[in-house]
Amino acid sequence: MTENATRDHFFPAMRAEELIGMILGDSDPRNPNVSPLFASFPNCPPVLLQASDCEILRDDSIRMADHLRHEGAEVRLSVTQGAPHVWQMFDGLFPEARQAIEETGQFIEALN
């Protein structure tokens, strides 16, 4: 969150504590129902994670990939350069969106 604090335009790091408080309330942030980083994934199917190199959630994606691998899952972590948070929603506006959608389709097809 520190490295990309001024680079992520959709999810401002300066509001992280406020957003965390809105989501968590009095809940324990290590509750697996709140954060998959603390959940168990027995017999997990293959997973594709996509993150942007400049979003504040990039490192959470890396941590999640590591956690899933530790759980025995096959994980593909794809990091896109310069894309905004949730860039996949902007198909037709960002070429990276189409690339991410195609990557997802290829990942799913490879499972069959």
TrEMBL record:
Keyword NADP: no
Keywords: Hydrolase
GO molecular function: hydrolase activity
Domain Alpha/beta hydrolase fold-3: 5-88
InterPro entries registered for this protein in UniProt: AB_hydrolase_3 (IPR013094), AB_hydrolase_fold (IPR029058), GDXG_lipolytic_enzyme (IPR050300)
Keyword Hydrolase part of the UniProt annotation: yes
Stated name of the protein: Alpha/beta hydrolase family protein
Protein source organism: Celeribacter persicus
